[in-house]
């Protein structure tokens, strides 16, 4: 099913710093200001992506084309979309686009149909009024996002999400639910994820304690290791398939969305898949200058690697998109948090920014002061819907006004002379005005994007998420890093396994621990009975 053709590979790979195309790009980027009177809006899968708040010039556009050509962008894009080996450290494809294809291959179509039939039967029987979704990372954030976005006003099924290994999370996840009408959904690609298995065990004990004779009949698994899930006790009919070539943070398009379908309908899942597929087509076919993922990626590279911005702020001006920020945090930071290129050498330029944020207008009263007048600042992705789905147009007009005003303030800023004149016009004494005006200066010229959705439909949200996926692929390609592995996460997992056995007293304390870790392992292990 998946091509095994090699990627561009390290043999022919050249470090970014060694590319004359990078040097020309870097030079052009430093001489490409933001033009506040120039409009640049791209149309992509029904979204309007306004990149007017990014630096631009003909020289930068030419350098971008040359840099992408040097990185074999066209061939690598084709390899990604055709299921070739693009995750070279694990020798896998990253073929999440296949999961949302309008006419998928048979094995994907079969899983889609199985999911639909499972939900249809549960709905017809009015079963499972409660769902406990147990997963972490990519097995959690996307489902949370979709359920909160389209079930924010309530649904007949109630979903509790449990990701954290903290027992309080599991206790809260089970609280208030009737065990006899609760379905446990365990999502884990490997079905070895410690948090998911421990929390799943607690959920199973909870069902058993309620006197349920066949508790495994109320447990569903979504995994690439059906054999492991079956050995755990879950019946085959309750195991939905993933594939090794689906990275966790790209798995929303798979049966991981079973909980979404149960909570807010299978049409939501299908709509998101359709929107993402439309963005795939745009990414595959749009010319570079009109290609929204490419242009967002290039702006992000300029902001991070040339201008030195260390972070990217996500500002969704829609209450329903509160979970978009952590979703994109994982998508971006787990993919681009790398400093070694595919040849094993240091990249040599800053990569992957820290991603953070919260919905507007709450954000304005939390950290926008820092964005406007802080010494560092950060690029901002403003996201807003043209139309609301509530009945209070004045609220939506205020929301739109705040979004546009904050972006304009970041772009245009306010000079000392403008601030001084405003103070004087208010009747302030000249000496006081001259002093206070310094505190009202806004630097301006701070980069941003404005992404406008027609409204928050499943189709639009799917397109939005795929936009960021493809942006990340392009950035990884230019930087020369593999955006599809996560060895930093894996290392911590290995260390945690050893420390857990030391705390439990089943293995001796490792003498190679640093002094602080050894101190706390010894202290917490010896005091565990007292707790």
Plain-language structure description:
This protein has 531 residues and is α/β, with parallel strands linked by helices. The protein folds into 3 domains: 16-91 and 274-412 and 446-479, Rossmann fold; 101-264, Rossmann fold, CATH 3.40.50.10490; 487-526. The protein is 46% helix and 11% strand. It has 19 helices and 13 strands. The protein has helices at 20-30, 58-70, 73-81, 106-124, 141-150, 167-174, 194-209, 226-232, 258-264, 266-285, 292-306, 324-336, 368-373, 393-412, 416-425, 430-437, 458-479, 487-504, 515-526; strands at residues 41-44, 47-50, 85-87, 92-93, 130-134, 158-162, 182-187, 219-223, 239-241, 311-317, 354-357, 380-385, 448-453. The strands form 3 sheets. Strands 1-2-13-12-10-11 form a 6-stranded mixed beta sheet, sandwiched between helices. Strands 6-5-7-8-9 form a 5-stranded parallel beta sheet, sandwiched between helices. Strand 3 and strand 4 (92-93) form a beta hairpin. The radius of gyration is 25 Å and the shape is globular.
Keywords:
alpha/beta; 531 residues; Rossmann fold; 46% helix; single chain; 3 domains
Q: What is this entry, summarized?
A:
The protein is of the alpha/beta class.
Describe the secondary structure blueprint for this structure.
Layout (H helix, E strand, L loop, with lengths): L19 H11 L10 E4 L2 E4 L7 H13 L2 H9 L3 E3 L4 E2 L12 H19 L5 E5 L6 H10 L7 E5 L4 H8 L7 E6 L6 H16 L9 E5 L2 H7 L6 E3 L16 H7 L1 H20 L6 H15 L4 E7 L6 H13 L17 E4 L10 H6 L6 E6 L7 H20 L3 H10 L4 H8 L10 E6 L4 H22 L7 H18 L10 H12 L5
Parallel strand pairs: 5-6, 5-7, 7-8, 8-9, 10-11, 10-12, 12-13
Antiparallel strand pairs: 1-2, 2-13, 3-4
Helix pairs in contact: 1-2, 5-9, 9-10, 10-17, 11-17, 12-17, 15-16, 18-19
């Amino acid at each position: 099913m998946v091509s095994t053709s090699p990627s561009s590979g390290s043999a022919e790979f050249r470090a970014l710093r060694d590319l004359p195309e990078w040097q020309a790009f870097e030079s052009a980027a430093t001489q490409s200001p933001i033009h506040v009177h120039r409009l640049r809006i791209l149309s992509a899968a029904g979204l309007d992506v306004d990149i007017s708040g990014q630096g631009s010039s003909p020289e930068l556009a030419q350098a971008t084309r040359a840099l992408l050509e040097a990185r074999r962008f066209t061939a690598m894009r084709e390899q990604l979309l055709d299921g070739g080996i693009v995750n070279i450290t694990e020798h896998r494809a990253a073929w999440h686009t296949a999961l949302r294809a309008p006419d998928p291959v048979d094995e994907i179509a079969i899983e889609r149909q199985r999911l639909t039939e499972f939900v249809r039967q549960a709905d017809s029987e009015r079963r499972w009024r409660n769902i406990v979704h147990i997963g972490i990372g990519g097995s959690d954030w996307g489902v949370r996002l979709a359920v909160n976005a389209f079930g924010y006003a309530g649904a007949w099924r109630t979903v509790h999400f449990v990701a954290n290994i903290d027992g309080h999370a599991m206790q809260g996840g089970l609280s208030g639910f009737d065990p006899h009408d609760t379905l446990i959904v365990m999502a884990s690609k490997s079905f070895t994820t410690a948090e998911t298995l421990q929390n799943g065990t607690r959920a199973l004990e909870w069902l058993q304690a309620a006197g349920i004779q066949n508790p495994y009949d109320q447990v569903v698994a979504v995994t690439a290791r059906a054999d492991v899930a079956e050995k755990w006790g879950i019946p085959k009919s309750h195991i939905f398939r993933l594939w090794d070539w689906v990275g966790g943070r790209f798995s929303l398009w798979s049966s991981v969305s079973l909980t979404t379908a149960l909570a807010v309908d299978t049409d939501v899942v299908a709509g998101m898949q359709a929107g993402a597929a439309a963005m795939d087509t745009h990414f595959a076919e749009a010319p570079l200058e009109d290609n929204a993922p490419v242009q967002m990626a290039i702006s992000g590279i300029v902001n991070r690697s040339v201008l030195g911005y260390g972070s990217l702020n996500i500002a969704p001006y829609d209450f329903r998109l509160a979970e978009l920020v952590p979703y994109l945090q994982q998508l971006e930071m787990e993919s681009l948090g790398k400093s070694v290129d595919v040849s094993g050498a240091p990249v040599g330029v800053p990569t992957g920014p820290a991603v953070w944020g919260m919905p507007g207008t709450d954000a304005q009263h939390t950290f926008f002061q820092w964005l406007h007048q802080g010494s560092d600042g950060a690029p901002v992705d403003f996201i807003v819907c043209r139309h609301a789905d509530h009945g209070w147009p004045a609220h939506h007009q205020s929301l739109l006004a705040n979004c546009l005003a904050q972006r304009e303030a970041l772009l245009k800023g306010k000079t000392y002379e403008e601030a001084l004149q405003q103070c004087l016009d208010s009747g302030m004494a000249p000496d006081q005005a001259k002093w206070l005006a310094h505190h009202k200066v806004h630097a301006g010229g701070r980069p941003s994007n404005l992404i406008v959705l027609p409204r928050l439909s499943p189709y639009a949200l799917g397109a939005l998420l795929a936009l960021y996926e493809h942006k990340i692929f392009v950035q990884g390609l230019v930087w020369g890093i593999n955006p599809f592995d996560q060895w930093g996460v894996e290392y911590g997992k290995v260390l945690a396994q050893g420390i857990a056995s030391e705390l439990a007293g089943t293995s001796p304390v490792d003498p190679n621990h640093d002094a602080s870790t050894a101190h706390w392992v010894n202290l917490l292990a010896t005091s565990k009975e007292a707790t």
